[in-house]
């Protein structure tokens, strides 16, 4: 039963974790907009999500045995996404590559998608509960 719940909700777990990581990176970019020499960073959410989903499927296909109670479980395996430096859109004298318009748009879009994923996960959980309760 737990395996079926994991497969039903695993997408949302990975998506929300990656959206949260991206939000932290974008917030760091905005916070360092006036820092000389700061390079804006980001990652490709779609590639990171595909990687996370393939890792989750691989982890679910091979049952792992815990030989010690302090070992971590195989669930919730999401690799850190490959972060890259964003290409500068404008030249700055202080060598800072943060473009506030780009960062604000990316931050708002990511926040909106995070909220959308939360709403969809909530909807799916309610449907699962209604099925379980009959």
Structure keywords:
elongated, 134 residues, mainly alpha
Written description of the protein model:
This protein is mainly α and 134 residues long. It has one domain (2-133). The protein contains three helices and two strands, in the order H-E-H-E-H. The protein has helices at residues 2-31, 45-61, 100-133; strands at 41-42, 84-85. It has a two-stranded antiparallel sheet. Helix 1 runs antiparallel to helix 2 and helix 1 (2-31) packs antiparallel against helix 3 (100-133). The protein is elongated and about 65 Å long. 12% of the residues are buried.
Strands side by side in the biggest sheet: 1-2
The main pleated sheet reads as: 2 strands, antiparallel
- Run of helices and strands: HEHEH
What overall form do the CA principal axes indicate? elongated
Q: Which stretches of 5+ consecutive residues score pLDDT under 50?
A: none
Quick overview of this protein structure:
The chain is an all-alpha fold. It has one domain.
What's the structural blueprint in terms of helices and strands?
Blueprint: H1 2-31, E1 41-42, H2 45-61, E2 84-85, H3 100-133
Antiparallel strand pairs: 1-2
